[in-house]
Amino acid sequence: MSSDKKTICIVGGTGAEGSGLAARWAAHGHRVIIGSRDASKAQSTVDALNALTGKNNVEGMESRAGVAQADIVVLTVPFSAQRSTVEGLKDALAGKVLIDVTVPLVPPKVSTVQLPESDSCVVAIQKLLGEQTKVVSAFQNVSAHKLKDLNYQIECDVLVASDDVEARQVAMMLARDAGLRGVDAGVLANSVVAESFTSVLIWINRKYKIPDAGIRITGLSSEEAKA
Ligand SMILES: NC(=O)c1ccc[n+]([C@@H]2O[C@H](COP(=O)([O-])OP(=O)(O)OC[C@H]3O[C@@H](n4cnc5c(N)ncnc54)[C@H](OP(=O)(O)O)[C@@H]3O)[C@@H](O)[C@H]2O)c1
Description:
The protein has helices at about 15-30, 40-55, 65-70, 80-95, 120-130, 165-175, 190-210, 220-225, and strands spanning about 5-10, 30-35, 60, 70-75, 95-100, 135, 155-160, 180-185. It is of the alpha/beta class. The protein has a single domain, classed as Rossmann fold, CATH 3.40.50.720. The longest helix has 18 residues, at about 190-210. It starts with 6 loop residues before the first strand and ends with a helix. The model has no long low-confidence stretch (mean pLDDT about 95).
């Protein structure tokens, strides 16, 4: 997919992770729709992001309406709401690329890896949606902490996994447009690594009293990562 300006709907975009990604994509020039269960709740996020970026690229609406208008849908809701949210949008998601950022955290032990029975919660979502929706796993290891600091160089690679090669390229493009480096991590089953690793990063944050530990793939230049 070319780096043209896209319409991106972020379901759960009122939260920390979704609004942070929204800020970076809107600053890059994409049209971003903040999807919420409550359009009026979305409006305060919209106002803050348009003020932050100095552009008017962000709009807010109820998630179903936003998904209908989007080229790309990004899911940033808690694990406990992942399946029910996607079930409710299943027909609207047909024909779209869905980038799932969900981490299967089970409070209160969020610094312990607790994978669901299916192993990967994103693979389970691809099974739920079927072939009509191309599901990609990405951004699980990127802390929301500095996303809204638009010029801050976040030290974290984005592992991108999908069974669809073009969908992987879409997420790689969005990683780049957010000022991050996407790394092709292969098939969707490999998502389980990124989903698990976030609990390890939370552990490291707590242990060393830092806000935003990240991951880097070594031995791969930025030029090679683009290939
Ligand atoms: N925060 C981070 O640093 C970070 C980093 C990497 C990955 N993640 C992952 O990204 C996802 C979002 O994280 P977050 O910190 O942004 O979460 P969050 O603030 O707790 O929630 C995000 C949004 O999800 C919606 N939501 C909350 N509970 C819901 C429910 N029961 N049913 C349906 N929608 C619900 C809400 O939007 P509305 O009320 O507007 O509908 C909320 O604003 C999680 O899976 C998280 O593990 C987070």
